[in-house]
């Protein structure tokens, strides 16, 4: 119930704006054609940015127990390119939203969520979003 309330407050105070930022980044990646591999991550994290409470982003390799294209060396290269093209812009948006939310006590959980998303914005390739309960059951790593 608390996650629902926080998610609804989140939508009003920055969630929709940052979701739209992620969607614009994803659409631009698709339009460029060479950016299609990055679009998947943009859309995945964008939906997470719309409704973050009760869910978390984890490395796909931690979830599946094996490496894939996005979690290996190519994922690292992809994250570097992502950072240069779109990552730092989205991270700045989340950072600005976090500062605005941190002005009030009720906004502190929202600010914390924006800060977590700012970190993810820098390197989203190889991440997936799962329920927080499921993440608690994953082995450490």
TrEMBL record:
Its main location: membrane. Keywords: Cell inner membrane, Cell membrane, Membrane, Transmembrane, Transmembrane helix. It is a multi-pass membrane protein. Residues 5-55, 77-127 form the Inner membrane component domain. InterPro entries: Inner_membrane_protein, UCP028777, YccF. The keyword Lipid biosynthesis does not apply. This is Inner membrane protein YccF. It comes from Novispirillum itersonii (Aquaspirillum itersonii).
């Amino acid at each position: 119930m608390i996650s629902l309330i926080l998610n609804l407050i989140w939508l009003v105070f920055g969630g929709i704006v940052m979701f739209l930022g992620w969607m614009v980044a994803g659409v631009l990646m698709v339009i460029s054609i060479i950016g299609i591999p990055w679009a998947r991550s943009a859309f995945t994290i964008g939906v997470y940015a719309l409704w973050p409470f009760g869910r978390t982003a984890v490395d796909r390799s931690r979830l599946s127990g094996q490496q894939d294209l996005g979690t290996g060396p190519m994922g690292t290269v992809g994250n570097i390119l992502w950072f240069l093209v779109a990552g730092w812009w989205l991270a700045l948006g989340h950072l600005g939203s976090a500062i605005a939310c941190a002005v009030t006590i009720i906004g502190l959980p929202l600010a914390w969520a924006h800060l977590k998303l700012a970190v993810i914005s820098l390197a989203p390739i190889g991440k997936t979003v799962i329920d927080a309960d499921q993440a608690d059951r994953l082995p450490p790593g």
